[in-house]
Amino acid sequence: MKKYFILFLLCTLSALPALAQPKFIKNITPKFVRKMLFEKDSSRSASFFLLPVVSSAPETGLELGASTLYSFYTDTSSITRVSNVFAYGTFTTEGQQRVSVSTSYWTAQNRYHYNGLVSYVNFPFNFYGIGNNTVKADEQRISEKRLRINFNGEKRFGNWYLGYVLGGYNYTYRIDNLGKSFEAQLTPYDRNGGAGIFAGPNITFDNRNNNTYTTKGMVVNAYLNVMHGLFADNNYKGSLFNIEYAQFFKLHKRWVLGIDIQEQSLLGSQTPFYLLPEMGNDEIMRGYYNGRYRDKNLLAGQTELRYRLSDRFGLAAFAGTGAVFRNDLNLKQFKPNYGGGLRYFFDTEKGLTMRVDYGVGQQAAGEKRQQGFYMSLGEAF
Description:
It comes from Mucilaginibacter terrae. Residues 1-20 form the signal peptide. This protein has 381 residues and is mostly beta strands. It has a single domain, classed as Porin (Beta Barrel), CATH 2.40.160.50. It is built from three helices and 19 strands. The chain has helices spanning 10-19, 22-28, 31-37; strands spanning 3-5, 47-57, 61-72, 83-92, 97-106, 112-127, 140-157, 160-175, 193-206, 217-230, 237-250, 255-267, 278-279, 293-294, 297-308, 313-325, 335-347, 352-360, 371-377. The protein has a 17-stranded antiparallel sheet. The chain has a two-stranded antiparallel sheet with strand order 13-14. A hairpin with a 3-residue loop joins strand 2 (47-57) and strand 3 (61-72).
């Protein structure tokens, strides 16, 4: 099983503020580290955070890289939300890469909101087949090269935002070992990947008091990607519909309860495996390997209880359930997940966090219980 080692100063972060005086911190840490980790800033100035990453696995060798978050405001108004640029990049000794740059940009007074993403992945992953009851014995390592570009823009009308989404993708796969039971699920048409473009409408209702660490309010977002294939895949036509609802309740000065529900559907007669909704990531259904279960439809929900220990630290406990399905939804198919984590607020004014979570999922017959360890920048929802 792959082991991850993240080079970050979590233990130091926990110990230094309690054990060290500011003068001591000043003497042993560079200025940008002090500003990034310890100093409070209420001036609405830009901030930067760096999280180095190291991991290793037999199929990749040593993987090195970092994730960074640059956050800023586009004006000095107190109602303008924080914008950010997030970048992630790693490379391995086996010649694999993962690179991603994304941004969330809010104009003055939140009149317009733009999101953009460019990502490239040249990395192996585990494939188990299609459906809600795949088995560990069918695990197959697949080499993937994936380029994806997303962009959406929306204009504010009170608490409503209306806009569009557009982008493109190009996925390439190599399956080295054949003979698994899921082979029959992969048609010659899509087993090697495909390319396409997409566009469609986007609508959002958002009255949250903060878009980074929300303590009250609600956000509902829905979009439709109408897709058309390109190149050798130019006969493909389909759509992806996504709707997500999240609401937050301030129970006490330090307690917040969050609820999140998401539904995704791949529409159309053709269902390439690489476009199917996947269950499990660092945002919802934590504890499940991303893509262990995939099918035409996904429905998942979670609740998270957050406790703010201090300006710098917080705790969270979460629980949820979810399932993927082809046509008919069976309530018995829903799988559980639960877990908890630690939050470090590296920018207290903006509510920006470094998140460490441990999630636990289902224990299928004859298998070990599914689980996952996550380190991310920003809240899960």
